[in-house]
Amino acid sequence: MSHGAGGKASRRLVEGMFAPLLLTGEEQLNDAATVNIGGATLAFTTDSFVVRPLQFPGGSIGELAVNGTVNDLAVSGARARAMVATFVLEEGLEREVLEAEVRAMAAALARARVPLVGGDTKVVERGKADGMYITTAGIGSPIEGVRIDPRSVRPGDNVLLTGPIGDHGITILLARSELDLEADLVSDTRPVLPLVEALAAACAPGLRWMRDPTRGGVATSLNELARDCGLAVELNEEDIPMHDAVRGACELLGLDPLHIANEGQFLAVVAPEYTDMALNALLQTEGGEAACVIGKIREHPANAVLVNTRYRGTRIIDMLVGDPLPRIC
Amino acid sequence: MSHGAGGKASRRLVEGMFAPLLLTGEEQLNDAATVNIGGATLAFTTDSFVVRPLQFPGGSIGELAVNGTVNDLAVSGARARAMVATFVLEEGLEREVLEAEVRAMAAALARARVPLVGGDTKVVERGKADGMYITTAGIGSPIEGVRIDPRSVRPGDNVLLTGPIGDHGITILLARSELDLEADLVSDTRPVLPLVEALAAACAPGLRWMRDPTRGGVATSLNELARDCGLAVELNEEDIPMHDAVRGACELLGLDPLHIANEGQFLAVVAPEYTDMALNALLQTEGGEAACVIGKIREHPANAVLVNTRYRGTRIIDMLVGDPLPRIC
Questions:
Q1: Counted domains in chain A
Q2: CATH number for the domain including B50?
Q3: DSSP string, B278-308
Q4: Is B33 helix (H, G, I), strand (E, B) or coil?
Q5: Quick check: bond before B53 cis, omega within 30?
Q6: In this structure, are A303 and A250 located in the same domain?
Q7: What's the Cα-to-Cα distance from A269 to each of A100, A159, A215, rounded to whole Å?
């Protein structure tokens, strides 16, 4: 299961088998690829969704499948322009359950203003899928002036976060009712494009890198950044926004909220002279009211993420190892 | 199961639920959508693959997943230019099985000269998938001069087919060993782009329509054509090429070979004055040696496919109803 968790084992599978055999070019392992076709520069991305349960507080698999692809494009500096979707349905799935997800996708597409232009449906026998799996792929066009490249990140740059972490992962965990916990928490699934656009308008020349910390959480995304830029990321634990319910569930279960999945937040690295403008732009945009600076890029220790704890200690936090929460998206 | 079989129930699901809720524009239900992004005209398509078994004589799921998307673009008049792929893997899948499919994809991508630029992997618990499901999406750029539109089809046009039908479907059926039949038959999975390009070079102005008759077979594709152009398609049964093993298996099982899936053939409708050039172009291209004219477009009976049988009778053949061969691709 950990090969699908988005952490270390996933990265080993991608870097050890998929990338050497399948990727031919100089592609970096970003959320979306950049391709040049017919004179146009495009972003192209895909994701499969296998979240369990299909519906959860604040969202459902159909909504997640649309927002996930819109967001992968957005944090790559692109506006989603067209999407396709496929369904693998389990024989016997109730028509109402399918229709609810089709409607959820339609609503998410309308909210993100992206047309769905094609798709495919396969049906497998009872017991050969878990209700349904949805895969989406999207094409985006570049947002003017934005160029996301971890190699452009410099010591002194600031790390911004758009809002509280862990809502999606902990909501899914609670929705499975494997634990006797209750909390007033909903998934943060939403399109982040309006926030990305606000950021781009305010500080495109100083915007170095973005990533939506889904599977593997903030810690995994920032470890990938640290590795890709060869620098250190230093976080201040007490600056990282988090709902009490997330903090409480994580303490109880021994999970690190920095490893928990998010579906409606993103991280951005911004040059110091643009940071105030960037933060103000997020704060003034709907859904960005909890944005904040959570850390800084340092020269040392190379390739690592450090956390200054609330008790004045410092710890190194690694990518997600193993899979505390399978099938989160 | 029949909702995934590519025949009548699939079409009802698409036209009754997916299309009205999800498709916003004037899209026709073709193998690939046409989108205009950043000043470029692109074709965009996606398919999920759930074939069982994963490997079969002549191919495997990984090869099929690449060729399927290359072919959907090709018969839409586009050259595949970039592809993405996702895997839904069942926990416990042997590494060797996965690696074999990744290598099969790499070989198929190289053969079709398409770069894979991104992907995603999810893992589900044991029993929640059948080894692996693969989804691919592809972007293509238009082949010069080709414009595929069923509404441009006219009475008197000829229907061409690139080679023998039913190889893929019957190979899968035999590979499942549910029947005590053996035959020297392999799947026809291959990229059809070289044949499409040869056809386009020879007769682009007279090339009205193409389709690769996968799920639902030749009969389903031609019924969709008949409906979309409001005309009749008349086939001559004895002109339709077929291996003896396919004919024999179909007779034994009461299946109509016109409903059996193909993965490396396509149908083309060509204006009468271009038909000789079109046929010669196919015959002279590697893999097109068995190409032939199998029928004609007529004015009546509207929206129907007629077959002149080898016994001088005529029958009407409908789309596939039900699902004689589940999980064929």
A1: 2
A2: 3.30.1330.10
A3: HHHHHHTSTT-TT-EEEEEEESSSTTEEEEE
A4: strand
A5: yes
A6: yes
A7: 38, 5, 19
State the complex-level ipTM. 0.95
Question: A83 and A190: one domain?
Answer: no
User: Encoding tokens for residue A250?
Assistant: 């994580």
Q: Is the separation of the CB atoms in A18 and B121 below 8 Å?
A: yes
CB contact under 8 Å between B116 and A86, yes or no, is no
Domain with B196 in it: what CATH number? 3.90.650.10
pLDDT of residue A52: 96
Strand boundaries in chain A, DSSP class E: 33-37, 40-49, 55-56, 59-60, 78-90, 116-124, 132-142, 158-161, 207-211, 232-236, 267-270, 292-298, 304-308, 314-316
Is B14 domain-assigned?
no
Taking all residues of chain A, what is their mean pLDDT, rounded to a whole number?
Answer: 94
- What is the span of the domain harbouring residue A56? 23-142
Taking CA–CA distances from B26, the nearest residue in chain A reads A117
- A 24-53 residues inside an 8 A Cβ radius of B: 24-25, 27, 32-33, 35, 37-42, 44-50
Contact present, B62 and B134 (Cβ < 8 Å):
yes
Q: Name the 3-class secondary structure at A80.
A: strand
Nearest C-alpha in A relative to B88: A48
* B98 at A interface, C-beta within 8 A: yes
- Domain shared by B98 and B180, yes or no: no
Q: What is the pLDDT at residue B29?
A: 65
The predicted structure's pLDDT at residue A182? 76
Give the nearest partner residue to A47 out of B35, B86, B327, using CB atoms.
B86
CA gyration radius for chain A?
Answer: 19
Residues of chain B predicted below pLDDT 70: 25-29
Considering only the C-alpha atoms of chain B, give the largest distance between any 2 of them, rounded to a whole number of Å: 58
Closest residue to A88, CB basis, from B105, B133, B326: B133
CB pair distance less than 8 Å for A117 and B33? yes
Inter-residue contact A144 to A224 (CB < 8 Å): no
User: Do A116 and A170 share a domain, yes or no?
Assistant: no
- Report residue A128 as tokens: 């050969």
Q: What values do phi and psi take at B60, rounded to 5?
A: -165, 170
A44 with A122, same domain: the answer is yes
Contact between B76 and B148 under an 8 Å Cβ cutoff? The reply is yes
User: Could you report the per-residue pLDDT of A149-202, keeping only the tens digit for each?
Assistant: 999 999 999 999 999 999 999 999 999 977 777 788 999 999 999 999 999 999
Q: What SS3 class is residue A15?
A: helix
pLDDT given at position A25: 62
- What's the CA gap between B248 and B251, in Å, rounded? 5
Measure the CA dihedral B257/B263/B269/B273, to 10°.
-110
Per residue in B207-248, pLDDT (tens digit) is: 999 999 999 999 999 999 999 999 999 999 999 999 999 999
Tens-place pLDDT, residues A194-250: 999 999 999 999 999 999 999 999 999 999 999 999 999 999 999 999 999 999 999
Contact in structure between B37 and A42 (CB atoms under 8 Å):
yes
Neighboring chain B residues of A81 at a CB cutoff of 8 Å: 35, 37
